[in-house]
């Protein structure tokens, strides 16, 4: 079982994933060593996993091929599957199509 710390009371040398990322580091396959819990009034606590900073490694740099793949994936998320045109924004997953295509049945009624 991993130790659980209250919010803002974690010992030195441990960091969350986002804290590691802001330092330019990544967990590098290490397992979670502890967790933080932030209590909330009406719901369960917020949980954040902690990793050791000394075992973290630098973030891998983005290569030109990775940048190209990311640009291609983002471009695919902008194309409406219904009308097939570039919407100019990322298509909301809640709609599954661009806003004009989603509003078209409501306008016809």
Task: Name the features.
alpha+beta; single chain; 4-stranded mixed β-sheet; 27% helix; 109 residues
Short description:
The protein is an alpha+beta fold. It is 27% helix and 19% strand.
Helix and strand topology:
Elements: E1 4-6, E2 14-15, H1 17-22, E3 25-26, E4 34-38, E5 46-52, E6 57-58, H2 64-76, H3 99-108
Parallel strand pairs: 1-4
Antiparallel strand pairs: 2-5, 3-6, 4-5
- Gyration radius from CA atoms, angstroms: 21 Å
What fraction, in percent, of the residue positions are helical? 25-40%
Order of helices and strands: EEHEEEEHH
Mean pLDDT: 92
- The geometry reads as flat
Question: How far apart are the first and last residues' alpha carbons, in Å?
Answer: 58 Å
Biggest β-sheet: strands ordered side by side in the sheet: 1-4-5-2
Q: State which percent range the strand residues make up.
A: 15-25%
Which regions are unreliable across 5 or more consecutive residues at pLDDT < 50?
A: none
Number of helical segments with 4 or more residues: 3
The total of beta strands comes to: 6
Description:
- The chain has 109 residues and is an alpha+beta fold.
- The protein is 27% helix and 19% strand.
- The chain is built from three helices and six strands, in the order ββαββββαα.
- It has helices at 17-22, 64-76, 99-108, and strands at residues 4-6, 14-15, 25-26, 34-38, 46-52, 57-58.
- A hairpin with a 7-residue loop joins strand 4 and strand 5 (46-52).
- It is flat and about 55 Å long.
- The protein starts with a strand and ends with a helix.
